[in-house]
Amino acid sequence: MRTIGKATCLIVIMTILTGIVYPLLITGLTQVFFSEKANGSFILFRGRVVGSALIGQKFSSPRYFWSRPSSIDYNPLPSGGSNLGPTSADLLATVEERRKSEEKAHPESGTVPTILLFASGSGLDPHITPEAAKYQIERVARARGLDNEQKNQLIALVERCVESPVLGILGQPRINVLRLNLAIDSTLGGINP
Q1: What pairing do the DSSP bridges indicate for beta strands 174-176 and 162-163?
Q2: What are phi and psi of 179, to 5 degrees?
Q3: DSSP 68
Q4: Other CB atoms within 10 A of residue 145 CB
């Protein structure tokens, strides 16, 4: 009988510690030290939330830089890849279709960067490489009717949007596509995304 009483007391104490105290402590610490990330890293544009810096979005207008392909069409609920292996005929056909589409949209830009051909593992990658952004500059400039001076501003804007590797060594230089497109609308004018 004493063992049952001790076990019940231990269950109640551990439930309070691990079910109430610990979650409240961690939630409080994240709100203090990592508030933006803990709240979803939302991006505001003209006073309204237009997305998250952590989740990729689909941009199809030629006026904007395009994100990396997504096998789930940027739907965050079933995030994941296509699970097609490197020998899959379906994957090869999909990549070839993407290549043709990119070459048609960017006839003057040369070889398509691989990041624009393959979807990420999550299907929600918000970043592209600086090379992938530079590949798209001509299309964006042409679609917006930019003159040479404005095109130079666009090139400089792309350079300013490059994010360095974390701590200078973790990861690769990258560009958040949503932030870049919002910067273009703010700097060169445009419509609400």
Answers
A1: antiparallel
A2: -65, -40
A3: P
A4: 8
Please tell me the distance from the alpha carbon of residue 36 to that of residue 113, in angstroms, as a whole number. 32
**Alpha-carbon span 36 to 126, nearest angstrom:** 17
> Between the CA atoms of 82, 83, 85 and 88, what dihedral angle is there, to the nearest 10 degrees?
-50
Show me where the domains of the chain are located: 1-39, 40-188
* CA separation for the pair 114, 178 (Å, rounded): 20
pLDDT per residue as tens digits for the range 123-154: 889 999 999 999 999 999 999 999 999 999 99
Radius of gyration for the alpha carbons in the chain, expressed in angstroms and rounded = 23
pTM of the model: 0.79
Q: Which two tokens stand for residue 101?
A: 């589409």
Q: b/e per residue, 117-130, with b = 16+ CB within 10 A?
A: bbbbebbbbbbbbb
